[in-house]
């Protein structure tokens, strides 16, 4: 596999993931997590620009398929503001678990 085909495959996976963030199942879970966390960033308390962050990503050992964003247990999700989300990704890579 060439570098360009690897890059293309990764770009396709990222786009597929982004599209899933508009799925009604994800939007419903996102709303539930935001409510659970009091509609505030769990790191700094900010109430604007909120994201629901996956603390880890899960991939199927056999198929290599990524778990859909809404198929995670609530314990793996946390509300963070845009700034804290970016800083968290800069400081700590999100663990990938093959399950």
Describe the secondary structure blueprint for this structure:
Blueprint lengths: L2 H18 L3 H13 L13 E5 L2 E3 L17 E5 H10 L4 E3 L1
Parallel strand pairs: 2-4
Antiparallel strand pairs: 1-3
Structure description:
The chain has 99 residues and is of the alpha+beta class. The chain has one domain (24-98). The protein is built from 3 helices and 4 strands. The strands form 2 sheets. It has a two-stranded antiparallel sheet with strand order 1-3. A two-stranded parallel ribbon has the order 2-4. It is globular and about 40 Å long. 9% of the residues are buried.
Write a compact overview of the structure shown:
This protein has one domain. 41% of the residues lie in helices and 16% in strands. The strands form two sheets. It has a two-stranded antiparallel ribbon with strand order 1-3. Strands 2-4 form a two-stranded parallel sheet.
Distance between the termini: 25 Å
Helical content band = 40-55%
- Strand percentage: 15-25%
Rg calc: 15 Å
Q: Return residue spans where pLDDT drops below 50 for at least 5 consecutive residues.
A: none
Which structural class matches the secondary elements?
A: alpha+beta
Total of domains: 1
Q: Sketch the topology as an H/E string, one letter per element.
A: HHEEEHE
Q: What strand line-up does the widest sheet have? A: 1-3
Q: Can you give the mean pLDDT?
A: 90
Overall, the morphology is globular
Number of strands: 4
InterPro entries: HNH_nuc
Organism: Cecembia calidifontis
Protein name: HNH endonuclease
């Amino acid at each position: 596999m060439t570098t360009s085909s690897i890059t293309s495959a990764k770009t396709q996976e990222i786009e597929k993931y982004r599209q899933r963030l508009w799925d009604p199942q994800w939007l419903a879970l996102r709303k539930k997590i935001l409510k659970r966390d009091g509609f505030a960033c769990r790191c700094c308390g900010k109430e604007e620009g909120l994201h629901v962050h996956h603390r880890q990503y899960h991939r199927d050992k056999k198929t290599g398929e990524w778990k859909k964003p809404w198929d995670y247990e609530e314990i793996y999700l946390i509300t963070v503001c845009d700034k804290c989300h970016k800083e968290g990704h800069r400081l700590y890579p999100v663990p990938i678990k093959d399950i």
